[in-house]
Each structure stands twice: as C-alpha cells, then as structure tokens.
Write a structure and sequence with these properties.
Elements: H1 2-9, E1 14-19, E2 34-40, H2 48-63, E3 68-69
Parallel strand pairs: 1-2, 1-3
C-alpha cells in the first residue's frame, strides 16, 4: 500500500493515531512499525487521563529519537 511506502521511505518507526472517528484501527507490519491509538475527540469531552497519556507517549517517543508520525 502507498501509505506504508511513505512510512518506510521516511523511516517512520511509530504511528500515533489520535482520531476518534476511525472505526477500525490501522494495521502495520508487526515488527517494523509500532502503532498506538488514543481516540481523542475534537470536542471538549476528552478524559484528562487520555490527553495526558497521549502527550506523555509522544514526548517520550520523541525524547528517544524514534521517527514518529502523529
């Protein structure tokens, strides 16, 4: 798939999905790309713990120099 080619070409190693609109989470090769989903809403009705988790995960991933797509 073309989306995977983009990820490999840009050496992305982790994808963070923040959409609550997706009904089926994306699938990636198990050993090459990590995938994490935090279903956040565009409204003001997100649970504080979910926002904190998403922020901390992205921050730690960046601190560890992992190429990331959010």
């Amino acid at each position: 798939p073309q989306g995977l080619q983009f990820l490999f070409r840009n050496e992305i190693r982790c994808v963070v999905d923040l959409s609550d609109k997706e009904t089926i989470p994306a699938t990636f090769p198990r050993t090459e790309i990590a995938y994490c989903r935090f279903p956040l809403s565009d409204s003001n009705h997100n649970e504080p713990y979910l926002l904190r988790m998403a922020i901390r995960f992205v921050a730690e991933t960046l601190k560890n120099d992992v190429p990331l797509l959010v």
